[in-house]
Amino acid sequence: QQFLLANKLETAMWLSRLFTVYCSVLFILPFLGLQEAANFYQRALLANALTSALRLHQRLPHFQLSRAFLALALLEDSCHYLLFSLIFVNSYPVTMSIFPVFLFSLLHATTYTKKVLNAMGPSSLAFVRTFLDKLATNQQSILKFIACNEIFLMPATVFMLFSGQGSLIQPFIYYRFLSLRYSSRRNPYCRTLFTELRILIEHITMKPACPVFLRRMCLNSIALVSRLAPTGA
């Protein structure tokens, strides 16, 4: 208890991340019914928005109403996911959009959970420590999976628009979010996965068995995405 009270901001972020994980699980596995699952979807995104806002305050404690401060804030991953939460919180529930929130909260809660366990005792809750160690071992794979979700949510927002489940402005705002993730200083996985996907598609389409129209469509798509990529990233 003394450890938690001595680190109030870190503790608040830890609790909000655990709440995000809890709500995400109850949305992905709707034990309480589909109507309640939709409510847990919103709660997970709102909790993630709170965590992101607290983290952004920690990174940039002195708020200024200026263009320079906004540019600085947009460089922070926490700002990206604050924007992400605002994009999807009032939209039709999309399972793909909850996975990045769920997995980031789970990963970021790991370090502080270990500190809490150490404060409780060196051998406390051994099964939780084992789970946390497995998470840390698979962190790179989890971050790649998150980046994959971030990328494929772009066409998903367009599909939602044409199916009547999204708004006209959502794909444009999400494109801005994806641009920020592509340019992220702390997390290169989105940019790396874009490169890996381009190499994979080019390799497949260059095979003689690939139809010409499909090859042309894929290469044109790659050219379009390359033009839309942030300059200097």
TrEMBL record:
Pfam families according to UniProt? TMEM33_Pom33
Q: Which residues cross the membrane?
A: 12-32, 81-104, 152-175
Coiled-coil intervals in this record? none
Q: Where is the signal peptide?
A: none
| Subcellular location(s) per record | Membrane
Against InterPro entries, the record matches this protein to: PER33/POM33_regulator (IPR051645), TMEM33/Pom33 (IPR005344)
Report whether Transmembrane shows up as a keyword of the record. yes
* Keywords for this protein: Membrane, Transmembrane, Transmembrane helix
- Topological relation to the membrane, as annotated: Multi-pass membrane protein
Tell me its family. Answer: Belongs to the PER33/POM33 family.
Protein name, UniProt field: TMM33 protein
